[in-house]
Amino acid sequence: MKLTGKCTKCTSEEVYSNRPEGPRGERAVMAGPGGSISTRLFIEVYTCLECGYFEEYISNKDLRNEKKISKIKSNWQRVKS
Ligand SMILES: [Zn+2]
Fold this sequence. Notes:
It is a single chain. The protein is α+β, with helices and mostly antiparallel strands. It has one domain (15-75). Helices cover 17% and strands 27% of the residues. The protein is built from two helices and seven strands. The chain has helices spanning 60-63, 66-75; strands at residues 15-17, 27-28, 31-32, 35-36, 40-41, 43-48, 54-58. It is elongated. It starts with 14 loop residues before the first strand and ends in a 6-residue tail after the last helix.
């Protein structure tokens, strides 16, 4: 959805995102087992206006921010298959 602009559920192309320029939409994230993480991450939202499905991603910029990511790694649990 993020890459294709197509809804992964209904295949509609009515996909919109808040992916922005500025820090608008930034929000604090999230409680983990070790309490809430004080790091703020920008969350990109992709939503299908046909069926209402939506996905969320951490922005690429934050994903490459080692400080923020190491905080997540040390506070959250890795999901194992
Ligand atoms: Zn859809």
